[in-house]
Every structure is written in structure tokens, then in C-alpha cells.
Amino acid sequence: MSDQKIPLSRRQFLATTTLGAAAVAAGSIAMPSVLRAAGAPVKLGVLHPVTGALSYSGQQGRLGATLAIDEINAAGGIKALGGAKIEPVLGDARSTPEGGTAEVEKMNSAGVACIVGGYASNICLATTQAAARYDLPYVVDVGVADTIVTRGLKNTFRFGPGFGVIAKTALENLVTINDQAGKPAKTVMIVHEDSLFGSGLAKLLNAQLPQHGFQVLETIPHPTPTRDFNTIVLKIKAQNPDIVIPADYYNEYVLLARTMLQQHVRPKAIYSVLGGAASSYKFVKEFPDAAKGIMDCNHWFDPHSEKALALKKQVEAQGQFFTYEVYLNYSCVGLAADALERAASAERPKIIAALESSTWSGHTMPYGPTKFVNGQNQGAAPCNTQVQDNDIKVIMPPKFANAKAVFPMPA
Amino acid sequence: MFSPTILIPAILNGLLTGAVYALVALGLTLIYGVLHIINFAHGALLTAAMFAAYFVYRELGIDPYIAALLLAPVFFVVGYALQRFVIGPASHGDDRNMLLVTLGIAVVIENALLFAFRADTRTIDLPYAFQSIDFGFTFLALPRLVGFAAVFAVALALWLIMGFTDIGRAIRAVAKEKLGAELAGIDVAHIYAVTFGLGTACVAIAACLLIPTYYVNPSAGNAFVLVAFTIVVLGGMGSVPGALVGGLAIGVVESLSSLFLGDTLGQIGIFLIFIVVLLVRPSGLFGARA
Asked: What is the complex's ipTM, to 2 decimals?
């Protein structure tokens, strides 16, 4: 026993002295960067729901984040930190807020400089709050709930647009598209899944559409999963609306579109907001007939960005679909790396300050340079897309468009 | 409230959907009738069969309707082996244990599928999947009509097996009086396994009928099994005609209640029936009185 005491006390002694040295280093301003000059890797938390109900989206998000990390490391790492490599600390939120919170705790213990990810709104709400306790900077990748950035959390930054902006843009663009075509559409039917996302959107549309001269004939909620859309499609057929607005997750969206095709229901437009399948290459590839002409207002990459197109090629070469989770996460990691570069430090308060003053434009999105106000990127906005010629084209906003809207759909 | 132009198609669609529910319920009720257990692995087996149908189409290019002829015997063997070598031995002759073992198998199958194929949703695109036949007053989807016919063919085949073959007689004997059947020289463990195999084969056929118009992911089967439980209760636990009539009835109820009450409340119609049947006629429409 007494033999073990000596090395133990020596270890303790070493630990204390190192801590002391670290304290001294932290006290002086120049020292940390000098220490970092050795190029010690910077840990970055990459948090997604890679198992459970959201695992597809989570894995796509992780793919985007890791592609960005590999690219940054291959290009010489964080130069302001002596070429420090980014070391990803991968976390699985298991598709639940609790799972996400547990991962934040682990990542904090692992000493990450920043966390990127979250995906679902409910996960992001929990994880950003958990990270706030440690002043741990957190870049939200998708989570569209507006409450994520309205709680006054200093550590939380959302790169993409929130629900309010998306719904407002979707409505304005719908009115514009209809006006440009000579107002052929007057009636609307809304089909939505009955959780927070679909119901919230339906409520908003019901309040806003009549103000823009649209008559909402009927609003049909349905649960997830719904096995059969025939009755809903029969109702649509009976009312014969000019526009059908679906707000559903992927599976239900596909079933609905397929059933409409089967029942020969062809409205002037199918127009969705954050449509589960509408702007998904998977849907277009697997069901080109059902997807034809569908419009969506959703996260979308800048089709003129060389970087985005190169990334698309790279992702597709891996046999994966280029989904919004991929390019949003890719951009979010770039944003965090830019903050590290300008902070020239892996210290959390400095990274938060760097994110607050961020004007980064090296991303793949049609947002312009980043500008954060209360944690929300002000330039973030959705695009309107339409499935044309078995591809997904951007039809709005005009600045980023690579096609014109086909509306009304030829019968 | 609704004109016949929407009411009649809704009823017809309900019948077509109900037929597939009936087939899933058929397997469940068969297993219940003989083994006296609710097979909790039914949904997971349906999912597994849907994955099988998906890959048989994608890798071998075999149409799901033809694959049904292939997958039914394969899943019969799977079901037989599960009961004979896993559920039977693990339950040590106690029915309650059997129930728990099937629950365990469900967890294992679902998570194995999740591990192997991720939560990604998969669909196949067949040329006829979008085709519908114009009846003048409505369009009915071709794959659903095929499914409807196939379900009746399966039910007929099952009825013939149960009524006119030795194995069918043995199954009925075991269902009625296990000890007596054993004394008469029937191998009860074998009959149990055959029944489980038949139930699983029904699920495999249902999967092949579903896959042209539905999707598969590791939890896709569960959506059908909850309905199937209700059908089994409505039709009478263990009754084959009960499952068929119950399935069609539930299909129509679901379709009409989604028409009149909306889809969110439409599900209530099904479970109200479940509760009412349990209160008023616990043995179900065709069930023998306990």
C-alpha cells in the first residue's frame, strides 16, 4: 500500500502543477494561442438522432457534418490555431430530447469547443438549453420551431430559417405565382398531419389565405402513420380545389401523391410547405409520375453555388441522396470552423463572440453572408422548388431561380 | 351529408383495404385458435415479410404477386421453426410464457431490421401500381383489386386445408382438445408449429399484396397489427370466417368514419367497435361461447 502512495501523490502533484500552469496560462492573454500553436485538435460535437424514428434524417445530417470536417482538415485545419485539426465527437440523440441532452452532457465532459446539430425541433429545444448551462456554443442545423431562438440563450445560433419565416415566404410566393399566372387559382384544400408541425401550419394558412383572396374549402387532418388516403382523396375529388396544400412527413406525403394519381385527381397545383417528400430527390427518382409538377417551399441549396454542386456530386457518388440535412449540416460545420478561425481560440466565450459577429459566406445556401440577431441568421430563407423534367428546380426567389414556375399544371 | 358519388367509392375502398386487414387477422386468429396465445411477433413478421418482398423484387426482379408463391412457403418454414425451436422450448409448456416469448421475438426482429436497413422508408415502383380501373362512377386501384381477389383465394385455400386434409383435422382436434388429441396420437408440438407456420405464411402473402402500393420501414407492420387485433376480437377469437367478415367490416368502418369524422377521429371508430364488442358480445361475431 505504502509503495502505491508515492506514485499517487506524485500524480496528484503533477496534476496540481499542471492545473496551476494552466491557470497562469489562462491568466495571460498570449499564452493560450501559443500553447495551441502546437496544433492540438479542436473537438467539435456532432449531434444527430442517428437511431430511432428520425434516424434517416439524423444519418444524413451526420454525413453532411463529417464531409465538412474532412474537407476542412484536408485543407489544413484551423489556421489561426496552427493548423489544428477538427476532431468530431459524434453523438446520437436517439430521436428523443432526453437522448440529446445526455449527449450534450457527454460532449461537455469530453471538452468540445462547440456543438453542431440536433435536427428535430424538440431535440434542439432541449439540447441548446443543456449546452447553455456550460456556455457551450451550439449551432442548430435544422430545428425550425421559432422558440429555439426566442428564449434568450446566448450560446444558441440557428443558421437556417425558422417556421415563421418559412410560412410567410411560402404564402407570399404562392400569391406571387398565382398573380403572375393571372390568378387562375381561387380555392384551396389543406391536408395535414395532426401533430405540432402540420396543425400549426394549417392554422396559420387558414388565417392568412382568405386575406390573399383564397377560399379554403376544407382542412383535413390525419394521423401519422395513415395507412390509406383513398377517403381523403375522394373528398378532394368531390370538392375539386384549384390547389392542394399537403403538410405531411415523407411516407404520408408519398402515399397521398400516389393515391391522387391513382384516382386521377389533378389540381392546378400541389403546393406544400416543408413538404416531407416534395423536394426530395428520393421521391422524384422513385415516383417521377406522382412527383411531377409538385411545388414546395423548403430548405434548399443555392443552385448556382459551385460548392453546393460539388458537394452534391460527392454525396451522390457515395450512393446517398442530397437531402437538406446534408447541406445544412455541411454549412453549419463550416460556420463553426469560421468562428474558430476568427476567435483564434477554442475557448467557448470567444467562439460565441465570433459567432455573434459572423459574416461568413462560404456556405452552400441562398442566404448571403451570415448575420446573427439574437441567435437567428437574418439572411436565412427557404426556396420554392418545383419538380420539372425529373429534377428539382428552384423557381423562387428570382435571384436564385434556375427555372420558371409551371402553373397551372397542364391537365 | 355526402352524395352517393363519394359514399359508394368510400365503401368499396373500405372493402378493398379491409380484405388485406383480414388476411393479417387471419394469421393472427389461426394462431390464437390453436395455440391460445396472441402472437405479438405478428407485426414484426409482417415487416420482415415486406422487406423480403421488397428485396426479392429489387434484387431478383420478381414481381411481388409472383413472389407471394415463393415467400409463403419460406415464411411457413420460418414460422414453423420459430414455434418448434424457439417459442415452444422457451415457454416450457406455459401459455403465458409463449406470449412473452413472441413479444421478445418482435423486439429482436424489429431492431435487427433497424440495424440492417436503417429507418429509411423503401418503396418499389411497379408499372401497374398507379393503374386504376374506371367503373364509371369511380376509379378502383388495380393492385387493391388484385389483393382483394388474392385474399379470398387464400381464405378458400385455408378453409379447404382445415376442412379436408388430415393436417387440418389434426389442427382442429388440437384446437378443441389438446390432451385428447395427444392421446389420439397427434404430435401436438408439430401441429402447433404447423399452425404458426400457416399464420406466418398468411402474413407473407399480405406483405406481397401490400408492397406494390405501400412502403416498408422497420416499423411498417405495426400499423396493421393493431387493426388486426380488433378484427380478431370482432370476428371471434380463432374464427377464420370471423376474421374475413371482421376485416371487411373494419375496413368499411374505417373508411366511413374517416369520411364523416375526419381521419384523426376515424381511428376511434375502430376502437369503439373493439370496446363495444368486448362489452356486448365478448365471444365476437363467429366465436364459440367460452
From this structure: 0.76
